[in-house]
Design brief:
Helix content is 48%, strand content 19%. The protein is of the alpha/beta class. 39% of the residues are buried.
Length: 181
């Protein structure tokens, strides 16, 4: 039975060739280990890239998109399924419900919002699903430093921070997802 991984990432590709190549490597590893994709439903940037890569490996791809973005931004038209939601809050709720695990690739504030929301849900025991940052080229170093500061000042428990998998290597990231208890 396949597993569903929700990947949060940028609607832009960014300017790093290594982020693109490492993202492709990660997708191949996930597809080879029977993962299907849940994501934001766009066809541009890293979003479009991961959807196309999963599809090229014969995997299912579910896009979840607020209705306003269906009409205002380019949505991917080759997906297995596109789920329309009222707004971004319902989108995240649906993503959390249908996914077995979560990965944040490099992205902007939307990506940050999504993975921190999942981290909060895990922290308060509303869900028990693995979540990871794919820290390509140290992209998430400043975020992990900030989380360490939260721990240092007593605003976040070390155990709660430890729930967030942080990996620079695609194979180790997938292994960590698979071993999550």
């Amino acid at each position: 039975m396949s597993k569903k991984v929700c990947i949060f990432c940028g609607a832009r590709t960014g300017n790093s060739k290594e982020i693109v190549s490492e993202t492709k490597k990660l997708v191949k590893l996930l597809a080879d280990q029977d993962y299907d994709l849940v994501y934001g439903g766009g066809n541009g940037g890293l979003m479009g890239l991961i959807a196309d890569e999963f599809l090229s490996h014969g995997r299912e791809v579910i896009g979840i998109r607020p209705s306003i973005l269906l009409s205002e931004e380019n949505s991917h038209d080759g997906l297995t399924e596109m789920i329309s939601t009222v707004d971004m809050f319902e989108r995240k709720k649906n993503m959390v419900e249908v996914s077995d695990s979560f990965i944040a690739l490099p992205g902007g504030v939307g990506t940050l919002d999504e993975i921190l929301d999942v981290m909060t849900l895990n922290k308060i025991n509303a869900i028990h699903k693995p979540m990871a940052l794919f820290d390509i080229n140290g992209f998430y170093k400043n975020l992990t430093d900030l989380l360490d500061t939260f721990v240092q000042y007593g605003y976040l428990d070390k155990e709660a921070k430890g729930l967030l998998i942080m990996e620079k290597d695609a194979a180790k990231l997938v292994e960590s997802l698979n071993e999550y208890k």
